[in-house]
Design goal:
By secondary structure, the protein is α+β, with helices and mostly antiparallel strands. Helix content is 50%, strand content 20%. The chain is built from 11 helices and 12 strands. Bound molecules: adenosine-5'-diphosphate and magnesium ion. Magnesium ion (MG) binds next to helix 9.
Length: 406
Amino acid sequence: MPDTQPSTDATATGSSVIDRFAELEHLYRTAPVGLCLMDRDLRFLRINERLAAINGRVVEDHLGRTVREVIPEIADIVEPLYRRVIETGEVALNFEVAGETPAEPGVTKHWLVSYYPLTSSDGKVRAVSTVVQDITELKEAQDAMRSAGEELERRVVERTAELDEAREALARVCRVSMMQGLAGGLAHELNQPLTAIVNYAEAGRATIGRADAAAQLTDDFERIIEQAQRAAAIVRRVRLFVHKGEKVRTPTDVNQLVEETVPIIAVEARRSGPEIIIERAPELPAITLDPIQIQQVILNLARNGIEAMAKGAEPGSLTIRTAPVEDGVEITVRNTGPVIADEVAGRMFEAFYTTRPEGLGLGLAIARTIVEAHHGRLDMTGNDGAGVTFRFTLPATGPSAGGGDA
Ligand SMILES: Nc1ncnc2c1ncn2[C@@H]1O[C@H](COP(=O)(O)OP(=O)(O)O)[C@@H](O)[C@H]1O
Ligand SMILES: [Mg+2]
């Protein structure tokens, strides 16, 4: 093995220690970060031009002077950091320091500062080398980004509120314009029972004084009551539809609600006499709802089923069934009877669509409006045999309890 002398770069390149020192000096001077060396009394031993510029003074103004003398503006912040490094001998990295310097009075600057102790052989900290990076622009960009984010968030909230308002306004306009269309139909609808009432009343008046007056009057009065009730029912239905709705929301046992509705359905079914079958699920979650409105939905669907079956030869059957579904309750109202025509199936939920001479065409439109206001869905499917099934859901996580919010 040849005895090779480890060759240093210096000898290899022929440059001297002096040259290398000059190189380091040059690097220190021109480094794009602020650098300084501080003695134990916090006097500047050395500082580069970059840091001197940050401080707003020339290099010579620093040397031999204390931090407090040169940059009193931030002395309170940096002195404790230096002292800690001197006491502990530990490196302190990436401190964010903010403050003003004579370089730009009145402007808050941000720096990232790291402190490196220079220790002598006895372990004592002789001096502290400091690296300072100006991160003011970065900070400002961050702040701008944060406030832009906050502004965006604020605008989203604002727009969402506006959208909600617009949606409500639109719903109101829809109701109003629907109401205007309704007025004509309503006048026509009410005209029938009112004319009938006048006729019966006149007939009654004519019988007064006659021998059989009592029996005839009883009959006339009964007719009058019937017609007045029909008029009241029409008004009630329309009112329900136009109703601006102070929301009522009560935790409700849907089975019980169905049970309470059955007697009313039974009265309506009396004439044509279909069988009424109730199938209640043994257990249902309580649903927060408006009981009057949901009862109205069940009634509207049942009424339609009864009316559809009344046209057939068989009495038929109407089945109301409750069932738990994922996150809520499902209610089905099913009737046997006529097969539904495609044309009717496609339009039945439209307001004012009716195939019945005495119909208003609002029953299903109202029912769907109510169910959707409860965040549920109402749909119809034709049965395999004959007749139809209406199905609606009421989510347990629907509108919040308490109500009152428009
Ligand atoms: N169970 C049903 N079977 C067959 N057709 C139905 C049923 N329910 C509703 N329809 C059809 O849908 C139309 C609209 O119903 P609805 O909105 O309740 O208004 P109306 O009962 O006043 O006609 C009815 O006229 C009828 O043609
Ligand atoms: Mg109806």
